[in-house]
Amino acid sequence: MVEQRRFRVFRGTRQQGELKEYQVAAGEGMVVLDAVHAIQAEQAPDLAVRWNCKAGKCGSCSAEINGKPRLMCMTRISDYQAGETITVTPMKAFPVIKDLVTDVSWNYEVNKRIPAFQPRAPDAPDGTWRMYQYEVERPQEFRKCIECFLCQDVCHVLRAHGKHAEFMGPAFLVRAAVYEMHPLDEADRRSYLREAGGIGYCNITKCCTEVCPESITITDNAIIPLKERVVDANYDPLAALWRKLTS
Amino acid sequence: MTAADLRTHDYDVVVIGAGGAGLRAAIEAGAQKAKVALVCKSLLGKAHTVMAEGGAAAALGNVMGEDNWRVHFRDTMRGGKMHNNWRMAQVHAQEAPDRVTELEAWGALFDRTPDGRINQRPFGGHTYSRLAHVGDRTGLEMIRVLQDRAVHSGLDVHMECTIVRLFVVGGRVAGALGYFRETGRFVLFRAGAVVLATGGIGKAWQITSNSWEYTGDGHALAYVAGAELIDMEFVQFHPTGMVWPPGVRGILVTEGVRGEGGVLKNAKGERFMFRYMPEMFKGDFAETEAEADAWVKGDRKQNRRPPELLTRDVVAKAIVREIAEGRGTEHGGVLLDIASKQSPDYIKQKLPSMYHQFKELAHVDITKDAMEIGPTTHYVMGGVKVDAETQESTVSGLFAVGEVGGGMHGANRLGGNSLSDLLVFGRRAGLHAAAKRGAPPSIPDAAVEATVREALQPFERDGENPFAVQSALQAVMQRHASIIRDKSGLETALTELEKLKRRAQNVGITGSREYNPGWHTAIDLRSLLVVSEATARAALERTESRGAHTRSDYPDSDERQAREQIVIKKEGDRMVVRREAQPPLPADLMKLIKEGA
Hints:
The complex is a heterodimer of chains A (247) and B (597). Chain A has helices at 32-42, 105-113, 133-143, 150-154, 156-159, 170-180, 190-194, 207-211, 218-233, 237-246; strands spanning 3-12, 17-26, 62-65, 68-71, 86-89, 96-98, 101-102. With 247 residues, chain A is of the alpha+beta class. Chain A starts with a strand and ends with a helix. A 5-stranded mixed β-sheet of chain A has the order 2-1-5-3-4. The mean pLDDT of chain A is 95. Chain B is of the alpha/beta class and 597 residues long. In chain B, 35% of the residues lie in helices and 17% in strands. Chain B contains 16 helices and 22 strands. Chain B has helices at residues 20-31, 69-79, 86-105, 138-151, 217-224, 256-259, 289-296, 312-324, 344-350, 352-362, 417-435, 445-456, 466-480, 487-504, 517-541, 587-595, and strands at 6-10, 13-16, 36-39, 56-57, 120-121, 131-132, 156-158, 161-169, 172-180, 186-190, 193-196, 229-230, 235-242, 263-265, 334-337, 371-380, 383-384, 398-400, 484-485, 550-551, 564-571, 574-581. In chain B, helix 1 runs parallel beside helix 4, helix 9 crosses helix 10 (352-362) and helix 14 packs antiparallel against helix 15 (517-541). The radius of gyration of chain B is 23 Å and the shape is globular. The relative contact order of chain B is 0.17.
């Protein structure tokens, strides 16, 4: 069963661009990435798009489909009404390089600054550790992150306010949470999270959780517990008493 | 070309490819205080390793204390149909446990045993439960751990940079030339040691679990640089890829489904693997469904493994046979059923990404219904011929590791042996590459200029669309050099590839050099043509069936060819094929294989 579907795809560069219309013969089970590839193979070989695994595991093909941040490889064309035009645009929170490809290098810089994993001394003489499944499950949830940066894209602190210099964004709060909640880790990332990481910018609107293709409960399980740790570390009882007495 | 167009960098070690092998090599070279560049074709952390699902094989003995390196070595050699480089198989089995444990020290969060150690799951061809794993996303865990370790160790990462040529001067590696996808600008890396870690060649087929990157770049770069390739006839077709809907055809379904108890059935509902037991493995596997089910339920002392856990070559061929004989499903596959063997909660916990993948892409709930599956191109055992101790190729200073290296897996790779291969030999390659550092010979400007000119030629032509040539090549390889091969098919493939070479020389590109996938494809085609031809020539030369290489005109294994290797080398403009005997196994290891560990 093949039907003609209408797509509008952003074509352009950092400086300028426009939505271009393409017709694609959509077969059963086709995803939006297949349509972009069909356009590339038959109509526009220079159409720029990132992709790798085509199975929702690598997080390369992030874009906005009808305005929603999504992975193109996991979005079926049949999820859109017959006759509905499907519009594909690059992620808005990052500068466009070309067409659907954005400059996400900032994310890699942020990751580099997170204090590295520091394990406690091994538990056994053979240099191994003992950890239990219930202990590893929490950080394992954060390890599902495929670095698609869709949460960064939807986060209003980055998307609307452009606070890239002050805020690490939900993806790297999740990364910090992996190590902060790792049963073996002994590093302290609280001052980093509060200062350079800008955790205070997050006002827990949960938009990131909604777009996560891996269904990581970013806000509730990663960010809020990190915020609590940061607050605990910076709680000064004398100052709090003073504020109470003088208010 | 102007000087402003070419950036030049000097390093001790340049690692090309940033999957598990490249990352591990780069980390090790950095630990030896070498100045290291890590060059990757995609963004960091997107390499094929992220798709590895089942686990890393290492004889830790955490689940079954009987396990040790000897059993792992024996399993690997038998799985490889005795064609493996025995020394690599030995080193791999001996060092894998330390490499996996080391990942834990770097932050990996493997699933646990009840007593708090790294859990291990059963897998095809492994006698004992041996795969350290994280649900069904082990590769993702590994790559993140290595990625974070690498970025914190101070090496330079050059992302979205494709290498197009290696320079060899006076028999020694001198550097590599590449272009950045973003700008289309060229970059020259000068280094006395280059490590290829570029992965495989699966993009030469239509039905594949491999991504766009897998165009055999490292194989082709090494070949053009004068290194030898071995075992190129051995391409692994994974038994279980998705078959429906058409858009997802080829996407991998982890062997972990079978490791967790999933069974294969034909369209008539028959559990057919009991009928395909090879002579070599008779007595090692369950003979009745009741015995197999009891093993899955946990009674592993009294019962033997289900036949679904036979090696991948055996299972893939059984599936092809079932389909050919009319017992396939309507979309040309067979059924993989775990719903009737495990509870929905267990399936979701152990195989979360499979659950997600089928639900999203095929609208199938694997906790209720069977998956429709069929073979998909997955992995190449063949690769650059390397020294077993150092991973150095036949070109001085050029190393190859992981899938682009040849020899370790013989005629068929066991599931789980790839992730451990990356770690064991990645470390060794990094160590020896760092030891090889030193001022590289200087690269003549003319060689650099000629390479750049050649790479830019497609822009000057109003020629054929490169995507059309790529898709024609995939059709040729799928039709004539896939799971079942014969002389006339392979000869046809070679004739067709000659025509495709001419077409590839005439492709044309429109648009600018900035992030232009048409141009990238035109360049990748050169690699695809080399590896396709190498595969077809080697497959034609091996007149027997062994492991993943099956000839319908030579259906049996020929013991005289068991340890003979097909070697491929560039001589002038010709691809020359020759046979070479591998050194025999030492008596103690041979005894171990024959009599059990």
